[in-house]
Design brief:
The structure holds 2 protein chains of 2 kinds. By secondary structure, chain A is an all-alpha fold. In chain A, 34% of the residues lie in helices and 0% in strands. In chain B, 38% of the residues lie in helices and 16% in strands. Chain B has a 5-stranded parallel sheet, sandwiched between helices. Chain B is globular and about 50 Å long. The chains are: A mainly alpha, B alpha/beta. The interface between A and B is medium-sized, with 18 and 14 residues.
Amino acid sequence: MKPENTQTNYNKCICRGCALYSECAVGKGEALYCARGKSACQLDASKPCICGSCAVFAENDLKGGYFCLIGTAE
Amino acid sequence: MKKFKLLGISTSQRGKASNSYYLMKKAFDALEDPDVEKEIIVASELRLRPCDHHYSLSAKMCVHPCLITQIDPQDEMKKIYDGILEADIVILATPIYWGNHSHLMQLIIERLNSLENSNSAHKKVLVKNKIGGFMILGHEDGYQHVVGGLMNFFTEMGLIFPPQAYAAWVGESDENTEHDRERLEKDALIQDMYSDLVANCVSFAKQILVCSHCGEKMDYEHVSKKKNYIKK
């Protein structure tokens, strides 16, 4: 289930602590990719994703990860 | 008559120069059956990124297509996923190194978790109605231990095994491997053991995957009971 794009979910989101999260993403204020869609920045796809340990992931019964590269969750 | 697809996956780092590939190719060539399409994937010729073990954060992260397949265009594991999903018979070959299967076999197993996990975590059976077999080759260390470990994973993934689902040869209790190829080339008994495995797997597939009376294809779906503890 695609999470809602809310401030509450944005605050819960742990993307900002992820190894993929770049200076570019900081500058654009990106996060909550599972709800908002993929990043506009060039991210390092060789780094591991941490989406599975996020409350937004569990609460919305998400599957997969790398939403910053792939796009919103289904 | 149904065409059966026989897939071999050779996991020696030495690729086509390896004795594992040599025996697999020889055994596949020995099978002359117009009902069987044959293909061998040489794992060392593919770019295979190791598993990122996202499963350790959440089993729900391990999906098929694998996340690496989705995000890394350089990665070629899709050839192995597709090969297995399209095959009726899958035979995997590995050398023994320090008592275990090859590092490429281990990499492939960890990446294949995406197929296994589809059943146990996502309740969707992807690997079904496929026969499995193994080819093990080594020196001084035990093949039964290796095949036991491999069968453990591949039965979890969903392959069905005939009796004695492996062929194996190990040299003496020494490290002199210089003359192995010469011996393998000259010893018809060793080659027969490997050819017999292929023939047995194909024969077993023909017996159980298609009804010999009505021609109906088997469609058995084994849903993982023991691991479907993930409620959501």
